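User: Please fill in residues for this 276-position structure.
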């Protein structure tokens, strides 16, 4: 087994394991805390799922570097190094124990446990487990699949048939940006949807259910890297607003099935550049 294949297998195993822990807590009694806003929340399930993900990775990579959304330190994994950001060189693991926590705590079943294996700042494998829908999306060096079946982005090229996801932070104090994006998408494409789970949306683009997504805010690594790898391996495209290849730390993220990426970019630019 190659090193990349090994990392892909561990990413899938860790996402599944964390997803099991999260699913056990789903629609149960939760301890919920607000972070930066009343809708930006964390629960005890997030921290417990993250511990499981890290522990699973540590079984195969006991001195791994991990980048995690939650601040809970690893327990029982003394050799693990916790980094605040994705290192530019060497391997690392990027973990979102529950992406879509706002959905999770409202007992809405669209949320994901996502793990990306990164080498020199670039994802080489990604996995998003979505236990509430019984789905697992994975991408490694040799395959990209949903539930172990090959998947690919959609082949749609008629904009009237496109479904575009709008995602990222929604600020009630400054609703201008999301309002502009929804307006442009609604006017240019057949459908606009907002799911409340970035990794889940990226997985849907990779599997062909959605045709693109616009994320205007700088995405965190744990919100984006696993899903971006899924999209690219499935034949899609992920760029910045300028059309450059998206990498960790960029200001925004635009993804599509790559048949009409220019049209998705045009919509995003019309919404965002007009606000500057």
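Assistant: Residues filled in for all 276 positions:
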């Amino acid at each position: 087994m190659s090193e990349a294949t090994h990392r892909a297998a561990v990413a899938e195993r860790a996402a599944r394991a964390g997803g099991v822990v999260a699913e056990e807590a789903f629609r149960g009694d939760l301890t919920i805390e607000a972070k930066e806003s009343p809708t930006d929340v964390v629960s005890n399930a997030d921290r417990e799922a993250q511990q499981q993900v890290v522990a699973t990775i540590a079984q195969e990579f006991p001195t791994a570097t991990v980048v995690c959304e939650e601040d809970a330190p690893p327990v029982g994994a003394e050799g693990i190094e916790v980094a605040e950001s994705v290192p530019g060189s060497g391997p690392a693991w990027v973990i979102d124990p529950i992406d879509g926590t706002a959905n999770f705590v409202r007992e809405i079943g669209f949320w994901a446990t996502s793990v990306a294996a990164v080498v020199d700042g670039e994802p080489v494998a990604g996995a998003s487990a979505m236990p509430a829908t019984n789905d697992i999306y994975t991408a490694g060096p040799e395959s990209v699949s949903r539930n172990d079946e090959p998947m690919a982005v959609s082949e749609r090229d008629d904009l009237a048939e496109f479904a575009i996801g709008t995602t990222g932070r929604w600020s009630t104090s400054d609703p201008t940006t999301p309002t502009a994006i929804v307006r442009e998408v609604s006017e240019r494409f057949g459908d606009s949807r907002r799911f409340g789970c970035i990794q889940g949306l990226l997985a849907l683009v990779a599997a062909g259910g959605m045709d693109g997504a616009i994320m205007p805010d700088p995405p965190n690594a744990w919100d984006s890297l696993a899903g971006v790898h899924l999209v690219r391996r499935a034949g899609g495209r992920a760029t910045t607003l300028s059309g450059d290849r998206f990498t960790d730390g960029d200001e925004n993220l635009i993804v599509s099935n790559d048949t009409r990426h220019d049209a998705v970019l045009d919509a995003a630019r019309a919404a965002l550049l007009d606000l500057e």
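For context: The longest strand covers residues 91-99.
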